[in-house]
Amino acid sequence: METHKWHLLTLKVAVAIAIIRSKPKCKTSREYTEELRTIISDRKKQNVNLKAKVCTLEAEVLQLRQQLLLRGIQTSSDFENESAEAVGLMPLQCNVDSGQIEDDSGCDLSNEVREDVPKATHTSEICIQSCFPSSSIFLPTARYSPVEEEQMIHQIQFLNHLLVLGNLTATQSLSNLENECSVVEESLSGLLNGLLGLYRNPKPSVSTFQAKTIGILTALLKDSKMSENVLKNCLNIIEKFEKQLVQDILSNKSINRFQVQQSMTNCLILLGKCHILGGPLINILLSKVKHYSDGLLQHYQNQSKYDISEYENIFSILSAVEALLQYEKEKSESSECELFNNETKQFLHNLDQMILSLSDDFPLFSLYLWKMGTLCSYIENYKCKPL
Questions:
Q1: Is Phosphoprotein among the key words of this record (predicted)?
Q2: How far is the C-alpha of 344 from the C-alpha of 282, rounded, in Å?
């Protein structure tokens, strides 16, 4: 700490000497310093404005690339123009209405986030009907003015158009358009980042966007026409989203966080119930539980303080793990491959000793670990077929 203070003081002295040496003769050091501060402040504002413009332009470019890919699929197929109109293949130009944001009281621990959403205006309803005439198209019913949600609607539109067009064009495979399919990955990434943004700044629309996003993910991963390379990249994007979502749950220290955490936990559970995502997600969650258990044991042995907020938050992760393990246990079919990776197996092997060490000081946490270990043992012994 003393070293840090010394470097900071040295830096201040160096800046002061540089200002004195470079100042014009007609100005005092104070006047010249204020002038430099104003210049730097203006440049920062310009950089912020430029970044905003760049983000806007990038979003527009992505929308154009989305439309180009959809047109490429359409024109390379045999079906008539009426089929394209049936899925609403048109420019993505839906306006969104602003809504009143409600504060989370932190008292209601229901499974769903409040959805007291204002009714849409007549103009918006007409716009949505024109963009989504097919009943098979998903669209969030909640619409707000922030750019993040507007962009999320565009990503949802594109991915749904892509899936419906793929169903209509039985002979058309996305693997034939491999060079253009990075737009699928960028759209998926933008959609998931937008969902993370809604969790961090909760709005009544988060539950709706969450449901539609997971529905799209499931349909996208089940699409037989998706090329293996695109599918692999999409899985990597989803895995990064899952890890960041877990980290956001653990690091949230807001007093009114529990209702939003319930929604985030539900998101993990829904993702884990997808056949492709279930096993990897369970291992991600168990890895995080192992890491936290090791840290808690170290705090216990050293008699040091620990973050009470993180201790409260870990129970959201444990509840997600328990729900997914219970789902695996109750599935009618057995897994054809090992569910747990080597790291998880090693953690489960040492779990009894971990519970014994923590049970006196952390009885509730130890109870959750015991329940989790029991479910894991059952799944490993009775639900997984040997390779």
A1: no
A2: 9
Residues 168 and 136: their CA atoms lie apart, in Å, by 12
| 363 close to 309: Cβ distance less than 8 angstroms | no
The whole-angstrom separation of Cα 50 and Cα 36 is: 21
Pairwise CA distance, residues 123 & 94, whole Å: 10
| pLDDT of res. 136 | 37
Q: Do residues 106 and 255 lie in contact, with contact meaning Cβ atoms separated by under 8 Å?
A: yes
User: Residue 49 pLDDT more than 60?
Assistant: yes
CB distance 221 to 277 below 8 Å: yes
Provide DSSP, 213-265. HHHHHHHHHH-TTS-HHHHHHHHHHHHHHHHHHHHHHHH---TT-HHHHHHHH
pLDDT above 70: percentage of residues in the chain:
72
Higher pLDDT, 4 or 191: 191
DSSP code at position 80 = -
Q: How many CA atoms lie within 13 A of 330 on its CB side?
A: 7
Please report, as a single letter, which amino acid is at residue 356. Answer: L
Going from N- to C-terminal start, the domains of the chain cover 48-272, 278-387
Return the structure tokens found at 74.
């359409």
Q: How much is the pTM?
A: 0.69
Tell me the pLDDT tens digit for each residue of 70-104. 777 766 554 444 444 443 333 333 333 433 334 44
CA-nearest of 286, 335, 333 to 314 is: 286
Cα distance between residue 341 and residue 336, in whole Å: 14
The average pLDDT across 285-300 equals 92
Q: Are 100 and 188 in contact (CB under 8 A)?
A: no
